[in-house]
Protein backbone atom coordinates (compact mmCIF):
# COMPACT_ATOMS: atom_id res chain seq x y z
CA UNK A 1 0.00 0.00 0.00
CA UNK A 2 2.68 2.42 0.91
CA UNK A 3 4.50 1.72 -2.37
CA UNK A 4 1.66 2.52 -4.77
CA UNK A 5 1.73 6.31 -4.52
CA UNK A 6 5.50 6.24 -4.91
CA UNK A 7 5.30 3.96 -7.97
CA UNK A 8 2.62 6.10 -9.56
CA UNK A 9 4.71 9.20 -9.00
CA UNK A 10 7.72 7.53 -10.59
CA UNK A 11 5.70 6.46 -13.62
CA UNK A 12 4.27 9.95 -13.99
CA UNK A 13 7.77 11.43 -13.81
CA UNK A 14 9.01 9.05 -16.50
CA UNK A 15 6.06 9.89 -18.75
CA UNK A 16 6.67 13.61 -18.25
CA UNK A 17 10.37 13.21 -19.09
CA UNK A 18 9.53 11.25 -22.24
CA UNK A 19 7.01 13.90 -23.30
CA UNK A 20 9.51 16.71 -22.77
CA UNK A 21 12.11 14.76 -24.76
CA UNK A 22 9.74 14.32 -27.70
CA UNK A 23 8.72 17.99 -27.57
CA UNK A 24 12.37 19.03 -27.58
CA UNK A 25 13.34 16.68 -30.42
CA UNK A 26 12.40 18.94 -33.38
CA UNK A 27 14.38 21.82 -31.93
CA UNK A 28 17.33 19.55 -31.28
CA UNK A 29 17.28 18.19 -34.82
CA UNK A 30 16.97 21.70 -36.21
CA UNK A 31 19.96 22.86 -34.19
CA UNK A 32 22.02 19.93 -35.46
CA UNK A 33 21.04 20.07 -39.14
CA UNK A 34 24.67 20.95 -40.05
CA UNK A 35 25.86 17.50 -38.95
CA UNK A 36 26.77 15.28 -41.91
CA UNK A 37 27.28 11.53 -42.25
CA UNK A 38 29.89 10.66 -44.88
CA UNK A 39 32.11 7.80 -45.93
CA UNK A 40 33.97 5.81 -48.57
CA UNK A 41 33.89 2.10 -49.42
CA UNK A 42 36.76 0.77 -51.53
CA UNK A 43 37.13 -2.91 -52.43
CA UNK A 44 38.65 -4.94 -55.22
CA UNK A 45 41.24 -7.45 -56.37
CA UNK A 46 45.03 -7.32 -55.83
CA UNK A 47 47.71 -9.58 -57.29
CA UNK A 48 51.38 -9.64 -56.26
CA UNK A 49 53.99 -11.62 -58.16
CA UNK A 50 56.16 -11.94 -55.03
CA UNK A 51 55.16 -12.22 -51.37
CA UNK A 52 57.30 -13.55 -48.55
CA UNK A 53 56.49 -17.10 -47.35
CA UNK A 54 58.32 -19.82 -45.47
CA UNK A 55 59.02 -21.48 -48.80
CA UNK A 56 60.42 -18.39 -50.48
CA UNK A 57 58.69 -15.71 -52.56
CA UNK A 58 55.32 -16.81 -53.92
CA UNK A 59 52.64 -15.10 -56.00
CA UNK A 60 49.46 -14.08 -54.21
CA UNK A 61 45.98 -13.00 -55.29
CA UNK A 62 43.36 -11.66 -52.91
CA UNK A 63 40.05 -9.84 -52.62
CA UNK A 64 40.83 -6.92 -50.37
CA UNK A 65 39.86 -3.44 -49.22
CA UNK A 66 41.52 -0.01 -49.16
CA UNK A 67 43.27 -0.19 -52.53
CA UNK A 68 42.78 3.31 -53.93
CA UNK A 69 41.71 4.86 -50.62
CA UNK A 70 40.88 3.77 -47.08
CA UNK A 71 37.31 2.63 -46.40
CA UNK A 72 35.79 4.77 -43.67
CA UNK A 73 32.67 6.39 -42.29
CA UNK A 74 32.37 9.48 -40.14
CA UNK A 75 30.35 12.33 -38.72
CA UNK A 76 31.28 15.99 -38.90
CA UNK A 77 29.49 19.18 -38.05
CA UNK A 78 29.67 22.79 -36.98
CA UNK A 79 27.69 25.07 -34.69
CA UNK A 80 27.68 28.86 -35.24
CA UNK A 81 28.57 30.64 -32.00
CA UNK A 82 28.22 34.21 -33.25
CA UNK A 83 30.61 36.93 -34.40
CA UNK A 84 32.08 34.63 -37.07
CA UNK A 85 33.10 31.92 -34.59
CA UNK A 86 31.98 28.30 -34.95
CA UNK A 87 32.46 25.11 -32.98
CA UNK A 88 33.37 22.01 -35.00
CA UNK A 89 33.82 18.30 -34.53
CA UNK A 90 34.75 15.28 -36.62
CA UNK A 91 34.90 11.58 -35.78
CA UNK A 92 36.02 9.08 -38.41
CA UNK A 93 36.25 5.29 -38.29
CA UNK A 94 38.23 3.06 -40.65
CA UNK A 95 37.21 -0.48 -41.56
CA UNK A 96 37.96 -3.36 -43.90
CA UNK A 97 35.17 -3.46 -46.46
CA UNK A 98 35.56 -7.15 -47.35
CA UNK A 99 35.31 -8.65 -43.86
CA UNK A 100 33.84 -5.82 -41.79
CA UNK A 101 36.70 -5.69 -39.29
CA UNK A 102 37.62 -2.47 -37.53
CA UNK A 103 40.68 -0.72 -38.92
CA UNK A 104 43.39 1.38 -37.28
CA UNK A 105 44.31 -1.18 -34.67
CA UNK A 106 40.71 -1.71 -33.58
CA UNK A 107 40.09 1.90 -32.53
CA UNK A 108 36.47 2.92 -32.97
CA UNK A 109 37.44 6.33 -34.35
CA UNK A 110 41.02 5.54 -35.26
CA UNK A 111 41.18 7.74 -38.35
CA UNK A 112 40.21 10.98 -36.60
CA UNK A 113 38.54 12.31 -33.46
CA UNK A 114 38.64 16.09 -32.97
CA UNK A 115 36.76 19.01 -31.50
CA UNK A 116 37.66 22.63 -32.10
CA UNK A 117 36.87 26.25 -32.90
CA UNK A 118 37.03 28.01 -36.26
CA UNK A 119 36.96 31.64 -37.31
CA UNK A 120 37.42 33.16 -40.75
CA UNK A 121 39.40 35.96 -39.09
CA UNK A 122 41.52 34.04 -36.58
CA UNK A 123 41.88 30.58 -38.09
CA UNK A 124 41.19 27.13 -36.64
CA UNK A 125 42.14 25.23 -33.47
CA UNK A 126 41.48 21.50 -33.13
CA UNK A 127 42.22 19.05 -30.30
CA UNK A 128 42.34 15.25 -30.42
CA UNK A 129 43.59 12.51 -32.75
CA UNK A 130 44.36 14.01 -36.15
CA UNK A 131 46.78 14.42 -39.04
CA UNK A 132 49.97 16.43 -38.63
CA UNK A 133 50.54 19.70 -40.55
CA UNK A 134 52.88 18.09 -43.09
CA UNK A 135 50.13 15.69 -44.16
CA UNK A 136 47.54 18.46 -44.25
CA UNK A 137 49.53 20.91 -46.35
CA UNK A 138 52.03 18.82 -48.35
CA UNK A 139 50.17 15.63 -49.20
CA UNK A 140 47.76 17.53 -51.47
CA UNK A 141 50.55 18.35 -53.93
CA UNK A 142 51.59 14.69 -54.32
CA UNK A 143 50.20 11.75 -56.29
CA UNK A 144 48.63 10.32 -53.13
CA UNK A 145 45.53 12.45 -53.60
CA UNK A 146 44.93 10.95 -57.04
CA UNK A 147 46.06 7.32 -56.86
CA UNK A 148 46.57 6.54 -53.18
CA UNK A 149 49.14 4.34 -51.48
CA UNK A 150 50.32 2.44 -54.55
CA UNK A 151 52.08 5.66 -55.64
CA UNK A 152 53.43 6.39 -52.13
CA UNK A 153 57.08 6.47 -51.10
CA UNK A 154 58.45 2.90 -50.84
CA UNK A 155 57.50 1.67 -47.39
CA UNK A 156 55.84 5.03 -46.60
CA UNK A 157 59.07 5.89 -44.73
CA UNK A 158 58.18 9.62 -44.75
CA UNK A 159 54.46 9.26 -43.89
CA UNK A 160 53.65 10.13 -47.51
CA UNK A 161 50.39 8.15 -47.26
CA UNK A 162 49.48 9.54 -43.80
CA UNK A 163 49.67 6.16 -42.08
CA UNK A 164 50.42 7.82 -38.73
CA UNK A 165 47.84 9.86 -36.84
CA UNK A 166 48.78 12.00 -33.85
CA UNK A 167 47.13 11.45 -30.45
CA UNK A 168 46.87 13.98 -27.59
CA UNK A 169 47.47 16.84 -30.03
CA UNK A 170 46.47 20.45 -30.40
CA UNK A 171 46.73 22.03 -33.86
CA UNK A 172 46.41 25.59 -35.13
CA UNK A 173 45.82 26.58 -38.76
CA UNK A 174 45.94 30.19 -39.93
CA UNK A 175 43.31 31.67 -42.23
CA UNK A 176 44.06 31.51 -45.93
CA UNK A 177 45.90 34.70 -46.93
CA UNK A 178 45.47 34.89 -50.69
CA UNK A 179 46.50 31.27 -51.15
CA UNK A 180 49.08 31.19 -48.33
CA UNK A 181 48.43 29.15 -45.18
CA UNK A 182 50.40 27.82 -42.21
CA UNK A 183 49.81 25.12 -39.58
CA UNK A 184 51.46 24.11 -36.33
CA UNK A 185 50.87 21.19 -33.95
CA UNK A 186 52.08 19.93 -30.59
CA UNK A 187 51.25 16.58 -28.98
CA UNK A 188 52.08 15.41 -25.48
CA UNK A 189 53.16 11.88 -24.60
CA UNK A 190 51.06 12.03 -21.40
CA UNK A 191 53.85 10.39 -19.37
CA UNK A 192 53.96 11.58 -15.75
CA UNK A 193 57.26 13.20 -14.80
CA UNK A 194 58.61 12.95 -18.35
CA UNK A 195 57.15 15.82 -20.31
CA UNK A 196 59.18 15.16 -23.45
CA UNK A 197 58.63 11.41 -23.64
CA UNK A 198 56.39 10.40 -26.51
CA UNK A 199 55.76 13.96 -27.66
CA UNK A 200 55.42 15.05 -31.27
CA UNK A 201 55.29 18.36 -33.07
CA UNK A 202 55.22 19.71 -36.59
CA UNK A 203 54.72 22.77 -38.73
CA UNK A 204 54.08 23.37 -42.41
CA UNK A 205 53.20 26.01 -44.96
CA UNK A 206 51.45 25.89 -48.34
CA UNK A 207 50.76 28.24 -51.23
CA UNK A 208 48.18 27.80 -53.97
CA UNK A 209 47.43 30.23 -56.77
CA UNK A 210 45.92 29.25 -60.09
CA UNK A 211 47.82 26.35 -61.64
CA UNK A 212 50.60 26.37 -59.00
CA UNK A 213 50.52 24.67 -55.59
CA UNK A 214 53.48 24.36 -53.20
CA UNK A 215 53.95 22.89 -49.73
CA UNK A 216 56.73 22.26 -47.21
CA UNK A 217 56.95 21.13 -43.60
CA UNK A 218 58.78 19.36 -40.78
CA UNK A 219 57.61 16.69 -38.33
CA UNK A 220 59.25 15.29 -35.17
CA UNK A 221 58.21 12.39 -32.94
CA UNK A 222 59.80 10.98 -29.79
CA UNK A 223 59.66 7.21 -29.37
CA UNK A 224 58.39 7.35 -25.80
CA UNK A 225 59.67 6.16 -22.45
CA UNK A 226 57.97 2.80 -21.96
CA UNK A 227 60.45 1.08 -24.25
CA UNK A 228 62.72 0.58 -21.22
CA UNK A 229 60.18 -1.89 -19.82
CA UNK A 230 60.45 -4.09 -22.89
CA UNK A 231 64.20 -4.54 -23.26
CA UNK A 232 64.07 -8.10 -21.92
CA UNK A 233 62.10 -9.23 -24.98
CA UNK A 234 64.03 -10.98 -27.72
CA UNK A 235 61.55 -9.79 -30.33
CA UNK A 236 62.27 -6.26 -31.55
CA UNK A 237 58.59 -5.83 -32.34
CA UNK A 238 57.82 -5.96 -28.60
CA UNK A 239 60.29 -3.19 -27.78
CA UNK A 240 58.13 -0.82 -29.58
CA UNK A 241 57.16 2.65 -30.41
CA UNK A 242 55.03 4.33 -27.69
CA UNK A 243 54.84 7.84 -29.08
CA UNK A 244 51.75 10.02 -29.42
CA UNK A 245 52.55 9.69 -33.12
CA UNK A 246 51.26 6.44 -34.56
CA UNK A 247 53.63 3.83 -35.91
CA UNK A 248 55.53 4.60 -39.10
CA UNK A 249 57.12 1.15 -39.28
CA UNK A 250 54.67 -0.70 -41.46
CA UNK A 251 56.84 -2.34 -44.12
CA UNK A 252 60.07 -4.35 -44.48
CA UNK A 253 61.75 -1.23 -45.86
CA UNK A 254 61.91 0.52 -42.48
CA UNK A 255 60.69 -2.03 -39.92
CA UNK A 256 64.30 -2.73 -38.95
CA UNK A 257 64.36 0.75 -37.39
CA UNK A 258 61.28 0.14 -35.25
CA UNK A 259 63.29 0.55 -32.04
CA UNK A 260 64.23 4.12 -33.00
CA UNK A 261 64.20 6.69 -30.22
CA UNK A 262 63.21 9.61 -32.47
CA UNK A 263 61.92 10.23 -35.98
CA UNK A 264 62.40 13.42 -37.98
CA UNK A 265 60.76 14.04 -41.36
CA UNK A 266 61.14 17.01 -43.70
CA UNK A 267 59.05 17.18 -46.89
CA UNK A 268 58.50 19.65 -49.70
CA UNK A 269 56.67 19.44 -52.98
CA UNK A 270 54.81 21.21 -55.70
CA UNK A 271 52.49 20.62 -58.64
CA UNK A 272 51.57 22.54 -61.77
CA UNK A 273 48.41 22.20 -63.85
CA UNK A 274 48.65 22.52 -67.62
CA UNK A 275 45.24 22.13 -69.21
CA UNK A 276 44.07 18.55 -68.53
CA UNK A 277 47.52 17.57 -67.20
CA UNK A 278 49.08 17.91 -63.73
CA UNK A 279 52.82 17.60 -63.12
CA UNK A 280 54.21 17.09 -59.60
CA UNK A 281 57.56 16.75 -57.86
CA UNK A 282 58.39 16.23 -54.18
CA UNK A 283 61.38 15.49 -51.94
CA UNK A 284 61.63 14.10 -48.43
CA UNK A 285 64.32 13.36 -45.85
CA UNK A 286 63.52 11.02 -42.94
CA UNK A 287 65.79 10.18 -40.01
CA UNK A 288 65.43 7.32 -37.51
CA UNK A 289 67.71 7.98 -34.53
CA UNK A 290 68.90 5.30 -32.08
CA UNK A 291 69.60 5.25 -28.36
CA UNK A 292 70.86 2.67 -25.85
CA UNK A 293 67.67 0.61 -26.14
CA UNK A 294 67.65 0.39 -29.92
CA UNK A 295 68.80 -2.73 -31.73
CA UNK A 296 70.69 -0.58 -34.25
CA UNK A 297 73.31 2.15 -33.87
CA UNK A 298 73.66 5.59 -35.38
CA UNK A 299 70.89 7.05 -37.53
CA UNK A 300 69.02 5.53 -40.44
CA UNK A 301 68.44 8.09 -43.19
CA UNK A 302 65.97 7.87 -46.07
CA UNK A 303 66.08 10.37 -48.94
CA UNK A 304 63.28 10.17 -51.51
CA UNK A 305 62.36 11.92 -54.75
CA UNK A 306 58.82 11.44 -56.08
CA UNK A 307 57.58 12.56 -59.49
CA UNK A 308 54.17 12.07 -61.06
CA UNK A 309 51.97 13.20 -63.94
CA UNK A 310 48.23 12.87 -64.48
CA UNK A 311 46.23 13.45 -67.65
CA UNK A 312 42.44 13.63 -67.94
CA UNK A 313 41.54 11.91 -71.20
CA UNK A 314 37.90 12.92 -70.65
CA UNK A 315 36.03 14.45 -67.70
CA UNK A 316 35.42 10.87 -66.51
CA UNK A 317 38.76 9.19 -67.28
CA UNK A 318 41.96 10.17 -65.48
CA UNK A 319 45.34 8.52 -66.07
CA UNK A 320 48.58 8.81 -64.16
CA UNK A 321 52.18 7.66 -63.96
CA UNK A 322 54.71 8.00 -61.14
CA UNK A 323 58.30 7.33 -60.17
CA UNK A 324 59.97 7.19 -56.76
CA UNK A 325 63.61 6.80 -55.85
CA UNK A 326 64.57 6.14 -52.23
CA UNK A 327 68.11 5.88 -50.85
CA UNK A 328 68.69 4.48 -47.36
CA UNK A 329 71.92 4.99 -45.40
CA UNK A 330 72.93 3.72 -41.97
CA UNK A 331 75.62 2.23 -39.79
CA UNK A 332 77.00 -1.34 -39.95
CA UNK A 333 77.77 -0.92 -43.64
CA UNK A 334 74.09 -1.05 -44.58
CA UNK A 335 72.65 0.91 -47.47
CA UNK A 336 69.88 0.28 -49.99
CA UNK A 337 68.21 1.81 -53.03
CA UNK A 338 64.59 1.44 -54.09
CA UNK A 339 63.32 2.28 -57.59
CA UNK A 340 59.55 2.29 -58.01
CA UNK A 341 57.36 2.83 -61.10
CA UNK A 342 53.59 3.31 -61.03
CA UNK A 343 50.69 3.67 -63.43
CA UNK A 344 46.95 3.94 -62.97
CA UNK A 345 43.62 4.88 -64.53
CA UNK A 346 40.32 5.80 -62.88
CA UNK A 347 36.90 5.94 -64.53
CA UNK A 348 34.11 7.92 -62.87
CA UNK A 349 30.76 6.18 -63.28
CA UNK A 350 29.16 9.09 -61.43
CA UNK A 351 30.18 11.88 -59.06
CA UNK A 352 30.37 9.37 -56.21
CA UNK A 353 31.29 6.05 -57.81
CA UNK A 354 34.39 5.11 -59.80
CA UNK A 355 36.33 2.07 -60.96
CA UNK A 356 40.10 1.85 -61.28
CA UNK A 357 43.11 -0.18 -62.35
CA UNK A 358 46.42 0.63 -60.67
CA UNK A 359 49.85 -0.95 -60.53
CA UNK A 360 53.35 -0.62 -59.15
CA UNK A 361 56.74 -2.22 -59.75
CA UNK A 362 59.65 -1.86 -57.34
CA UNK A 363 63.26 -3.01 -57.35
CA UNK A 364 65.34 -3.10 -54.14
CA UNK A 365 69.15 -3.21 -54.14
CA UNK A 366 71.54 -3.39 -51.17
CA UNK A 367 71.24 -4.29 -47.49
CA UNK A 368 68.90 -3.10 -44.76
CA UNK A 369 68.15 -4.06 -41.15
CA UNK A 370 66.00 -6.81 -39.65
CA UNK A 371 66.09 -7.62 -35.92
CA UNK A 372 69.34 -5.71 -35.66
CA UNK A 373 71.05 -7.68 -38.41
CA UNK A 374 72.02 -6.66 -41.93
CA UNK A 375 69.88 -8.48 -44.52
CA UNK A 376 69.20 -8.25 -48.23
CA UNK A 377 66.76 -5.46 -48.99
CA UNK A 378 63.25 -6.65 -49.86
CA UNK A 379 60.82 -4.84 -52.15
CA UNK A 380 57.46 -3.53 -50.93
CA UNK A 381 55.43 -1.36 -53.31
CA UNK A 382 54.20 1.97 -51.94
CA UNK A 383 52.53 1.96 -48.54
CA UNK A 384 50.72 -1.32 -49.16
CA UNK A 385 53.07 -3.07 -46.72
CA UNK A 386 53.27 -6.41 -48.53
CA UNK A 387 56.75 -7.93 -48.13
CA UNK A 388 57.99 -9.39 -51.41
CA UNK A 389 60.65 -11.53 -49.79
CA UNK A 390 62.60 -10.77 -52.97
CA UNK A 391 64.38 -7.90 -54.66
CA UNK A 392 61.44 -7.11 -56.94
CA UNK A 393 57.68 -6.86 -56.59
CA UNK A 394 54.89 -6.24 -59.09
CA UNK A 395 51.57 -5.25 -57.54
CA UNK A 396 48.37 -4.81 -59.57
CA UNK A 397 44.98 -3.80 -58.21
CA UNK A 398 41.53 -3.13 -59.61
CA UNK A 399 38.33 -2.28 -57.85
CA UNK A 400 35.30 -0.14 -57.14
CA UNK A 401 35.11 2.94 -54.94
CA UNK A 402 31.92 4.58 -53.71
CA UNK A 403 31.65 7.72 -51.57
CA UNK A 404 28.58 8.97 -49.74
CATH class: Mainly Beta
Domains (count): 1
- The second-level CATH architecture is Beta Barrel
**CATH homologous superfamily, by name?**
Porin
Count of discrete alpha- or pi-helical segments spanning 4 or more residues: 3
In short:
This protein has helices at residues 3-31, 133-138, 144-147, and strands at residues 36-51, 58-65, 72-82, 85-94, 112-119, 123-130, 166-173, 180-187, 200-209, 212-222, 262-274, 277-289, 299-312, 317-329, 335-348, 353-370, 373-376, 392-403. With 404 residues, the protein is mostly beta strands.
Q: What's the SSE blueprint?
A:
Blueprint lengths: L2 H29 L4 E16 L6 E8 L6 E11 L2 E10 L17 E8 L3 E8 L2 H6 L5 H4 L18 E8 L6 E8 L12 E10 L2 E11 L39 E13 L2 E13 L9 E14 L4 E13 L5 E14 L4 E18 L2 E4 L15 E12 L1
Antiparallel strand pairs: 1-2, 1-3, 1-18, 3-4, 4-5, 5-6, 6-7, 7-8, 8-9, 9-10, 10-11, 11-12, 12-13, 13-14, 14-15, 15-16, 16-17, 16-18
Q: Could you characterize what this model shows?
A:
This protein has 404 residues and is mainly β. The protein has helices spanning 3-31, 133-138, 144-147; strands at 36-51, 58-65, 72-82, 85-94, 112-119, 123-130, 166-173, 180-187, 200-209, 212-222, 262-274, 277-289, 299-312, 317-329, 335-348, 353-370, 373-376, 392-403. It has a 16-stranded antiparallel β-barrel with strand order 1-3-4-5-6-7-8-9-10-11-12-13-14-15-16-18. Helix content is 10%, strand content 49%. It has one domain: Beta Barrel (Porin).
Amino acid sequence: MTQRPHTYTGQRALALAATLTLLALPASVSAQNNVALYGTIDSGFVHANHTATGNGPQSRSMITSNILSGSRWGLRGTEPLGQGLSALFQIESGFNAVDGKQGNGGRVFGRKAIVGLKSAEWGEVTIGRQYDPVVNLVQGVTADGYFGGFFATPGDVDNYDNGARIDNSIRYATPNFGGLQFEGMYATGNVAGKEGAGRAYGFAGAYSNGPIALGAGFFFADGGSNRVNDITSADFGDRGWTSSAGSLFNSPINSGFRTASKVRIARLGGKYAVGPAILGLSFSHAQYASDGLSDFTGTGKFDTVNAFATYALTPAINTGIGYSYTRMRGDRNIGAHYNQFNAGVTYALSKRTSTYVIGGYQQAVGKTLSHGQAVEASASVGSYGLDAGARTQLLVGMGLKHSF
